[in-house]
């Protein structure tokens, strides 16, 4: 298919004529965070101080090398440029940290809700167990009941023994009565 017919077709998207510049936002964010971390270190401040002292010393002492005479406008321009780039990079790093904090806070909130639900469930279970334990036979209650049953059995056994003796006595007296003429 020729190029002309491809441009005329409606189902074929046109290629972009603009030069596209694809940037990974995550990579830019990580890079900006690393710069922001470095800008906040003592090492950076020490190097910046050394560079400024050398810059000023060379421009004051080395007359033939004076590329930035006394008001040090080029040095001020360098600081302004640095500040113009450092501030947005630091803000970008802060925004990324804020997003991480928000995700962490949401996770903590979710975990707290789950913990609360688990605690409420366990409290209900504990309450039901307390109610169930209140209805369970205790050792003392069971001993008392068994003691009563034992006493009842002894009483019945004694009554039965007396009845058996009575019956034997009746049979014996009946047997004696049958033997007497």
From TrEMBL:
InterPro entries: DUF1003. The chain crosses the membrane at residues 44-67, 73-93. Residues 172-181 have a biased composition (Low complexity). Residues 161-181 are annotated as: Disordered. Keywords: Membrane, Transmembrane, Transmembrane helix. Pfam families: DUF1003. It comes from the Bacteria. This is DUF1003 domain-containing protein.
